[in-house]
Amino acid sequence: MKLFARRQHLPLLRKEMLEQAARKRTYIVRFVYAALLFLCFLLFFYDRLSVTGQRPSAVMGYGEDMFKFIVTMQFIGIFVFVPATMSSALTHEKERESLSLLFLTALRPWEIILQKYLGHLIPMFTFLLLSLPILAIAYSLGGISTDYLCSGIFLLVVACLQVGALSLMFSSYCAGTVQAFISSYVMGVVFYLGIAVPGILLNLFGAGITPRVTVASDVMFALFPPYILMGFMDTQGDTFADVVVRSIPIMVSIVLFLLMAWAFLRPRAFVPRKNVLLSVFKRLDAFWHKANKLTGGIVLIREPDSLPDHDPVAWREINKSSVGSLSHLVRLFLFIEVPVAFTIWGFGVLGGFRGEARGLSLMLLILWPLAALMLVVQGANAFVSERSSQTLDVLLATPIAGRDIVRQKVRALRRIMLVMAIPIVSVVLCEAWMEHGHKGDNPTEDTIFYLLSSLLSVAVYFPMISWVSLWIGMKARTRSRAIIVSLAVVVCWCALPIFMLFGLQNLLAAGPRPLSPSLYFLLLSPASIITITESRETWGVLFDAPLLVPIIISYVCHGMLLLWFRWLCLQRADRYLGRVTEDGGQVDDLAI
Amino acid sequence: MALVEVEGLWVRYGKVTAVRDLSFSIPEGEVFGYIGPNGAGKTTTIRVLATLLTPAKGTARIGGIDVTRDPRRIRQRIGYMPDFFGVYEDLTVSEYLHFFAAAYKLELQRQRSVVRDVLALTDLTQKQGMPVDSLSRGMKQRLGLARVLLHDPDVLLLDEPASGLDPRARIEIRELLKELRRMGKTILVSSNILQELAQICTRIGIIEAGQMVAEGSLEDIYAQLGLMRVIHVQISNLTDELLAKAKAIDGVVSVENHVDRLAFQINEQTLPVEDLLDRLRALGARIYMFQPEAMDMETAFMKLTEGKTA
Q: Does B140 touch chain A (CB under 8 A)?
């Protein structure tokens, strides 16, 4: 590839390839990805593969399941990794102020876009290649046609191209990596759901609503992103050519995203980095200030015009950040709580304010990731922002103890935790009331369990996520690394125990599956504890024992982990942040 | 008595040794110019003294306190200005100074008076309500100096304070440093702009590849290097005979006859500058210009260093 880049005079692509080849991280990530992929495959298909030696004919035709599994895993990999790597492609150049130097060369903007695009896609293509041995096994076992195999691989490549182009567009638009990173994920979700949901609704209800217009399936496919297109494929009937034709809208979207990235490149090359939320709040402040002058107004929250007295770090975090001051927090709270309150009311009306409130459980599944994302970003950013704006050394040369600096940073984080906790707690209380409270009886054991577990989840997981992210942020060099690593840790913490459970069940299965013992793996994952609490009847049966004790043990374990991370952050603050400790201890090198 | 003492200091970053067996001392009230090429180990030494790096070997003491033994007390006694601005861009000038005054645990009432004083000293009073990010580089550097003075430290560690500034801003910083010297502060200042240090430093240290290659007053270093002082003289009644007699004065190494003047190169240990004037007068010379050339730090620097990095 480097040789190709040199021959074709692609200096930027060549530079990207050389940089990636020189990084140890490239090989470690590739190895870890391959190891996880093969491990998951082994865990999920061990029971089937283990009988191959005894009765080879017994596994013939199982290839389809394996193929679908591995393609799904690859799709997940693409949607998780491509935005993370691609979103920094151009913002990194902007932050290093090297984009202006590129403009001074003979490279034209579209060349910069395409070479950056290719440079960041090639590593993902190498990840796709890693699954070829497994795909070969799946194909050799039968059950899938050659067309299906080719279509699957084709759609994976198309997904890479589409997600990459979308993220590159945000990288071209945004001033900083963090902004591009968050925009890529949030707008990616909006984009894919925005396309998929109307498509599915059209499929389900379109004929009924517009009886004279029948939506042909081929036209409908055009609305779907690649992974759903894959799901709708007929494994035996559809040819590779059919899939290529159906993917034309996706190709068009890729070209559109790249064109937009090209259009943004020059006009947005030198936009100053700013805190978008803070700017919005400042504009709102100005608006209300004017409105108050007109109306002789009422000031609900008057911010004290204070100067720092004792705790300067906490003072700055609270008074100068976008989510620190009381008025900003109240706005953020209302922004989240008002839709939540309306939705609760809506579900209440639909269900007559009694009985099972499934809709509210679904709301929690949206609120929890939102809260976790917010806490991860704020926690990881707390110290790394000081490092990147070169203020940390100056702060560390003052006599404030490292642990005091950490404590003051956490004081600001607590306010955000509170704002994010109130919507979740309000949903939990309403759900408990709808399911149990309306009867007017004394609360049942089930209600107490639900309330206890839900409130404990907020009390334990919120600070735990914050402290873990803070710890990672203290050891990280850059904002993007701190946020990506913190997110990866939280996602793995939630997902790995679930994967391990299902994998182990396959591994251990012989005859009837011994569900109960291996189910305890789930207690390691905060996400599964929240899910178990929400659907406790189902899980209670599966566990074959009272849920309360294992759940409480899980909270105690997680609480101890929280305390451990807190201890690490406070006791080793000086070492992590980079100054001599009180006992003359060594300064730690930045590890992330 | 030396306020800053560094003895046998070694600092390593992984396999790279940034500072090797470095020793020097700065007596109280002196301004120590720390000179060296980029990558010589200047910032590393200053970071050790600022308690931001742990040495691999050796000791560094400020006021007799080992920087690794009692870092908190050291932080109270030093004012550290890094070679980058290190300013919170979301604060105003006044808020920025109050922030650090609180970090040094000054009472709010005392904060107000101290902030007012340092703003006046650094000529930033008019800018106190302005956001820090709207200040010019020179003003940001003056703000940095104002910050290090908030808690009235004994020792100032200034890492390239004039770097990247325009001539006016450099002169302003130089004047501020002279004022601080008059206030009795002990200052360690690193710089690449040698001539500026020559005007304010009482002692200099030249470091290369992590090792001190020369230390002392500029005169000492000249003497160590055997460098000659040059004196420019204009004589109205100059004759060949007078020129020959002048060349024969004990201590005169050479005399260059320029169009409008004579350039005497003298060995100061044998012939002090003022004695040359007396001797020329004794020879009957009518002198209407006698100008000793300033110590040429660049010559000393170039002679002592080879551009090696640690």
A: no
Q: Could you tell me the two tokens for B119?
A: 């703003």
Judge whether residue B5 has pLDDT over 80.
yes
**Closest to B46 in 3D by CA, of B183, B216, B207, B162:** B207
If one counts every other C-beta atom within 10 angstroms of the C-beta of residue B268, the result is: 17
Closest CA relative to residue A160, chosen from A261, A257, A90, A22: A257
Determine the pLDDT at residue B35: 86
For chain A, positions 304-333, list CB contacts with chain B under 8 A.
307-313, 315-316, 320
pTM (predicted TM-score): 0.77
Dig out the tokens for A480 from the structure: 């993007």
Q: What angle do CA A19, A23, A24 make, to 5 degrees?
A: 165
Please state, in angstroms and as integers, the Cα–Cα distance from residue A211 to each residue in A214, A215, A223, B205, following that order: 7, 10, 20, 91
A150 burial level (CB within 10 Å; 0-12, 13-18, 19+): middle
Hey, where are the domains in chain B?
2-216, 227-297
- CB atoms inside a 10 Å sphere around CB B282: 10
CATH of domain B227-297: 3.30.70.980
Task: Tell me the chain B residues in contact with residue A581 when contact means C-beta distances shorter than 8 Å.
Answer: 71
Q: At what angle do helices A132-141 and A63-86 cross, to 10 degrees?
A: 160
pLDDT at position A210, please? 47
Architecture of domain B2-216: 3-Layer(aba) Sandwich (3.40)
CA B292 to chain centre: 22
Chain B CB contacts of A309 below 8 Å = 102, 108
Q: ipTM of the predicted structure?
A: 0.78
